[in-house]
Fold this protein.
Amino acid sequence: MPARLDSGSQPSSSSASPSVSSWTVSSWRDLACTQQPIYPDESALVRVLDEVRALPPLVTSYEIEALKLALAEAARGERFVLWGGDCAESFSDCTSAAIASKLKILLQMSLVLVHGTRKRIVRIGRFAGQYAKPRSTPTETKNGIELPTFRGDNVNRPEFTKEARTPDPTLLLRGYERSALTLNFVRALVDGGFADLHHPENWDLEFVKHAPLGGEYQRMVDSIGESLRFMETLAGGTILAMQRVDFFTSHELLVLAYEAALTRQVPRREGWFNLSTHLPWIGLRTSDPTAAHMEFCRGIRNPVGVKVGPDTAIETLLHTVRVLSPDNEPGRVVLISRFGAHRIGRALPPLVRAIRDAKLHVVWICDPMHGNTETVVPTAGEWAGKSVKTRKFAHILAEVEQAFEIHRNEGTVLAGVHVELTGENVTECTGGARGLTDDDLSRAYRSQVDPRLNYEQALELAMLIARRAAP
Ligand code: PEP
Ligand code: CO
């Protein structure tokens, strides 16, 4: 990421752009705001927010604008977006090994995608702030005891006790710090040559050697290495641009009081930037265009992701895009479709056509994870007889393939994919080249929330996407 720094100066009301004139950094407070923690001590929250407001930003407006440009290029088919990471990060996973392995799998996938698509890849992590989760119910009852649901490490703790489940505002500070620590390590690795295309062995994951697709991956690495040496012979020196790559951060925009505390004006740039992340997205449960999350996003200059699902009506989607991007700015609105393999064929085409016919600039991304979650009951292993949340690799792949097909048919562009994955050897999704079964889920299921592709499945998905997206 570029190193230029913003001071993150405090808000003043003088330079809001005309299209957001009635917006303020707290105008969302006047609207319905769902999925928010209820803190027992309001004054403790106010103290935390004051502290956050005084801390430096996590990202810069300069990086945010660079991402918006890259997204606009992806929407024109000039780049491809690889967006991935955990469903929810946890504070305990803020470790050297976990962060490095997430970067490694994203780098390996992007190498495969560069090879197949012949396009530059925009890498976006679901990391450095993905600590808050929307939930379908506000409380959970066990043995007659009702407690608030676990909403992510930024809000409360997962143990089923009153103390752990009571939202604690100081966790927002811990989340800010973990985000900063993660970003610091990512930036240092990237700037230190970790992502150098001359040395893909830096990000070799040991297990790739034993993976069913290890041979094919190695052939791609060798072929890119050869091309690079060829180009450098012609150029008469090292191509410096190959020594580093950009990683952008993203998380679901959920706890608005925290996001507002990091939303600032910066010197020499118009408007307001949410400096907690490059690319915040609005989840399906908070996507009402008349409610608080949309109001908040309306006034920030970041690119904004919006999940689009089976209940998204055409009119609502058109309205949402117009509200978020009154100037129809390329790269600003990122629509993340997530229907499930069985529904996308019917549901996506009318939405794509409506946006295309209205000539609205959007960046279409396919999330093949969230519409394909199902519950199975393994018959063997530790989890025999218990319900487990999983996803089938074949469904995930089928949704991505249909997304390509639909966009091709409609003359629009699928700009990228958004996946839940980990660089570790977990068994949370079934299928893939190794043929994981429901019974394998008992072996290494670690996700606290949604099931993620493991490193082999993630790499395999990248290979299959690369074939599909080949020019
Ligand atoms: C998510 O991306 O983890 C998520 C909760 O997605 P959605 O809002 O699409 O259900
Ligand atoms: Co999820």
